[in-house]
Amino acid sequence: MSMSRLGKLLAGALALSVVLFAGCKAAPIYEVVSAPIPAPAGRALTLDDVQKAIARGASRSGWQLQPESPGHLTARFQSGRHSAAVNIDHDTKAYSIKMRDTSVRNDGTSVHPAYNNWVQSLDRAIRIELSSIGQ
Using an 8 Å Cβ cutoff, are 78 and 39 in contact? Predict the structure, then answer.
């Protein structure tokens, strides 16, 4: 095999791998870890205040919330045939959102970007509700 033919073959293989890799939609799993909860001026937050704000945010972004225990909630999201479930752990100072399960998991460390969009939307809605406590 001539060198130019080998070069063309390698270039073709590289181009094919780039196309195949680009078609593979995977992203690192988005998690919220110990996001601070803003305290309203002159008022101490209760666990109930925080849980109610998280519930409003979850509802606003299309998630169904299930209380599990004080400071621990499970939220579920359904989009057509696909779904996701997350654990939301919280106290009066911070909250975390971590994957529990999803139908769009690629492997143990990555998911389809749609999952991340769902969780980011949930996080934004929770932050909005938490920042409005006491206003």
Answer: no
3-class secondary structure, 57: helix
pLDDT in tens, 26-61: 889 999 999 999 888 888 899 999 999 999 999 999
**17 is a domain residue:** no
Residue 75 domain flag = yes
Range(s) of the domain holding residue 35: 26-131
Residue 108: closest CA among 15, 17, 14, 28: 28
Domain count, the chain: 1
Task: Please check whether residue 12 lies inside any domain of the structure.
Answer: no
